[in-house]
Write a structure and sequence with these properties.
Largest sheet of chain B: 6 strands, antiparallel
Structural class of chain A: mainly beta
Structural class of chain B: mainly beta
Radius of gyration of chain B: 21 Å
Number of helices of chain A: 1
Distance between the termini of chain A: 83 Å
Helix content of chain A: 10-25%
Shape of chain A: elongated
Order of helices and strands of chain A: HEEEEEEEEEEEE
Largest interface: A-B, 52 and 58 residues
Number of strands of chain A: 12
Shape of chain B: elongated
Oligomer: heterodimer
């Protein structure tokens, strides 16, 4: 008789604490992010760099400068992936002409870890880094977003000065460092 | 003599349990909510300079909750109710968040019960710390304190911060819902 009562006492104290456990339910969520790497130049129309006469005799030609272009990019990288860079190169070198490029600091609608300009770079047929340190970032699309580009042409050797027209293409590439 | 004692103990236990247990049923969303660019739940970034569209919203009734509140002893100044809390198993990288909100009032079955949220039906951001996002209840001056069920409460989930800023990879999470006394 006494043993039976003890057993009952244990059950009555343990059962409520078990049943008072909160009722729960679970649901699963999963999201995946792929690599993203896109670059574009806006606006996309060709530009003309035209040397102009100096105002006074004895002065050099006025070097043309164009600042109408903007570099836009989107980049998604893994935690352990290297940062990205943007390089620029030209398809050919025009004799006696130096083409220089400078990427300004990013402005506009972007976010994330945007790249940093490497300063003024002389364009050659070998790609040169003009922006580095890009990680997960987007600049915003269109003009006034991203890095403004300054392109300058300079006459190198005046002993070879002559009138001419020529066309070059500039290739911009975003890639892992 | 022995039989009488057994009966008394049994009655005492069952009364105590019914007085405290809240229960709920959750329907919908039984499969994994999977977001990616392959199944089209996330639109690909196709324009340089752009980001993903920031938010993903499930249907307004992605989940449906029925919450049952047990009887309480009648006292006009008491509040009879339950709260539903939620927590996520893993913190996600900034700015990626999971959010939740009821999108309707459900069916009180003439119980005079109602639901309310911590932020006027706006989304509640889920974290690894449990927090309530919905309460069901009624003041006892409307009733005798009998048990009631507030049913068909529609709930939606929002994934925010879908961005190229999030490191490339797959992120999984388990949402755990818990019903308890408010």
């Amino acid at each position: 008789m006494r043993r039976f009562l003890i057993v009952l006492s244990i059950v009555s104290s343990a059962t409520p604490s078990f049943l008072q456990a909160q009722t729960t339910a679970t649901r699963q969520v999963s999201i995946s992010f792929p690599t993203v790497v896109l670059v574009n130049i806006q606006p996309g129309d060709p530009i003309t760099l035209a040397f102009t006469r100096p105002d006074d005799a004895g002065l050099p030609l006025n070097s043309p400068v164009n600042t109408s272009k903007w570099i836009n990019y989107s980049s998604a990288v893994g935690n352990n992936s290297p940062s990205r860079t943007i390089t620029a190169s030209i398809n050919k070198v025009i004799p006696n002409i130096k083409l220089s490029i400078t990427a300004a600091a990013a402005t506009g609608f972007g976010g994330g870890t945007l790249g940093t300009s490497t300063g003024t770079v002389t364009l050659t047929t070998t790609p040169s880094i003009i922006i580095s340190g890009i990680r997960g970032a987007y600049t915003g699309a269109g003009i006034s977003n991203g890095h403004n580009i300054s392109l300058t042409a300079t006459w190198i050797n005046y002993t070879l000065l002559s009138a001419f027209n020529d066309t070059v293409s500039i290739v911009y590439t975003i890639s892992d460092f | 003599m022995l039989k009488k004692i057994i009966a008394i103990v049994s009655i005492t236990v069952s009364c105590d349990v019914n007085a405290q247990q809240r229960t709920m049923t959750v329907t919908g969303g039984t499969g994994t909510l999977t977001l990616n660019t392959t199944n089209g739940t996330i639109a690909k970034v196709v324009t340089a300079g752009s980001d993903y569209i920031n938010d993903y919203l499930t249907a307004t009734n992605y989940l449906t909750f029925n919450v049952t509140v047990p009887a309480v002893s009648s006292a006009w100044y008491q509040f009879q109710g339950a709260e539903v809390s939620v927590t996520q198993s893993t913190a996600w990288p900034n700015p990626l968040t999971i959010n939740i909100a009821p999108t309707g009032s459900g069916n009180s079955s003439s119980n005079n019960s109602y639901i309310y949220t911590p932020n006027s039906n706006a989304f509640t951001e889920i974290s690894t710390t449990s927090m309530w996002f919905m309460r069901v209840g009624r003041p006892l001056y409307f009733s005798s304190g009998a048990a009631f069920t507030h049913s068909n409460i529609p709930v939606r989930i929002k994934i925010s911060g879908i961005s190229v800023l999030v490191p490339v990879g797959t992120y999984n999470n388990t949402l755990t819902f818990t019903v308890s006394a408010p």
